[in-house]
Specification:
This protein is α/β, with parallel strands linked by helices. The protein is built from 13 helices and 16 strands. The radius of gyration is 23 Å and the shape is globular. The structure holds adenosine-5'-diphosphate (ADP), aspartic acid and magnesium ion.
Length: 439
């Protein structure tokens, strides 16, 4: 079994959906296809949910009308036969009527999730109708029947494996399955999601559940690049990455993969290949256990970072101080990205500020607390990077014009992380590319 995930741009129009159908229909192996919502849809659904939440039903309905029109155009050119045009039309009517129904109903956090799920529910149903019209034998697997997160918001691997196996075994004659990325149910059975960009994560979770031979992530660029192509003009495809390298890059901001995508694939030893739908013959990037030499591979940047500095004379020569501080982050469920310490102070960075006020109030019991927002973590990745003194010299040399706030070096073999103020991000990424990846 292989898993093939197609992102928003890859299914972003009738033409693109037809191209995806061509790509998957030519394959010989049994396959689960994971689709995102059409590009722009989830953003629109977020806006609609925001309008409903603000009780601005008029604006929500207007936005729904605009989106509905766009989908009607796609539906019109996707299907050839009259009966499929009608089926497609009815499908859109039912989903858009559902979206409109919230204007007359309560709108809670659960309803937000129901609205956001419509993008993937639509794209997969439209695509399945197209395959049917083309006479391609396939089956739609509802992700809401097997994809689930637990009490802590983490995927429930056992549940996913068992329920996906049951769904698949109901169709022994089928080799091609279509399912939704992103959407899932939570521990209460309500509709939920794997967070923005979560279809990549769905694909690797499904891959791990069925012990796939490969997870293919089809997107709008020819694989993982050595820097962020939205910010740096000259970037290059990286042919191979180790699981560790790719996981660091995804975690530290490389938008091409949802931050958690690599974990399930790595645990199940399943290679992940990142490919370009617009150029399917291009080799892309292969992510696997294989390591391809000790060089600096790539740079990524994670935005929206906040630094918390705690200073206390009590820290001097004392033990137990840090554990008390960490306990607060644990209680307020706030993950720490970077940390540095001196005799009397500790600096930590976080990106989830939802409990910041409560957290800092507690931390004030241990010393004076300073908070600085608007920072970026720039992360330079390459297998064994910390074994090469020359690598850190090159990185720091590339950043010599930039005010560096913190450096994390040596906590693992593959990564140097540097905290800088956000306004220097563009300059830092460009300078790193010029110095580290010339050519
Ligand atoms: P999809 O809709 O297929 O999931 P995304 O927009 O989520 O696609 O991810 C692909 C985009 O990620 C690319 O178009 C590119 O702009 C951006 N990106 C950011 N960093 C990188 C990188 N290091 N390599 C490749 N693409 C990157
Ligand atoms: N449609 C979702 C989003 O835009 C999930 C995804 O595309 O991966 O975030
Ligand atoms: Mg994505």
């Amino acid at each position: 079994m292989i898993i093939q995930k197609f992102g928003g741009t890859s299914v972003g129009s009738a033409e693109r959906m037809k191209q995806v159908a061509g790509l998957i229909a030519s394959g010989q192996q049994p396959c689960i296809v994971v689709l995102s919502a059409m590009s722009g849809t989830t953003n629109s659904l977020v806006e609609i949910a925001d309008y409903y939440s603000a009780k601005n039903n008029e604006a929500a309905l207007e936005k729904i009308d605009v989106l509905h029109k766009l989908y009607r155009i796609v539906g019109e050119s996707l299907y050839l036969k009259k009966d499929y045009k009608v089926k497609g039309h009815d499908l859109l009517e039912s989903h858009f009527d559902y979206l409109r129904s919230f204007a007359m109903d309560m709108f809670t956090a659960n309803e937000v999730k129901c609205v956001l799920a419509q993008g993937e529910l639509l794209s997969t149903a439209m695509f399945q109708f197209y395959l049917e019209e083309q006479g391609i034998n396939s089956c739609l697997l509802p992700a809401l029947n097997f994809m689930r997160i637990d009490r802590d918001g983490e995927p429930d691997s056992y549940y996913i494996k068992e329920n996906l196996a049951r769904e698949l075994s109901a169709h022994p004659e089928i080799k091609l399955f279509i399912t939704q990325g992103f959407v899932c149910r939570n521990v209460f059975g309500d509709i939920d999601n794997l967070k923005r960009g979560g279809s990549d994560y769905s694909a690797s979770l499904i891959g791990a559940a069925v012990v796939a031979t490969e997870v293919r992530i089809w997107t709008d660029i020819d694989g993982f690049h050595d820097n962020d192509p939205r910010i740096v003009e000259k970037t290059h495809t990286i042919p191979e990455l180790s699981f560790e390298e790719a996981a660091e890059l995804a975690y530290f901001g490389a938008k091409i993969l949802h931050p958690a995508t690599i974990q399930p694939a790595k645990a199940a030893h399943i290679p992940v290949v990142v490919l370009n739908t617009m150029d399917p013959k291009a080799a892309g990037t292969r992510i696997s256990e294989h390591t391809s030499g000790k060089t600096i591979k790539a740079v990524a940047a994670k935005d929206g970072i906040t630094v918390i500095r705690i200073k206390s004379g009590r820290m001097l020569l004392a033990y137990g101080f840090l554990s008390k501080i960490f306990e607060m982050f644990d209680i307020y469920k706030t993950p720490i990205d970077m940390i540095t310490t001196s005799e009397i102070s500790v600096s930590l960075t976080i990106d989830d500020t939802s409990n910041l006020v409560k957290l800092t109030d507690e931390l004030k019991h241990y010393g004076s607390v300073e908070v600085e927002t608007g920072q970026v973590i720039v992360c330079v990745v390459g297998e064994g990077i910390v074994d090469q003194n020359e690598a850190i010299l090159r990185v720091l040399n590339a950043l010599k014009e930039i005010p560096i706030r913190m450096v994390s070096y040596g906590s693992n073999q593959n990564n140097i992380s540097i905290l800088i103020p956000s306004e220097f991000k563009k300059q830092a990424l460009n300078s790193l590319s010029e110095k580290l990846f010339p050519g």
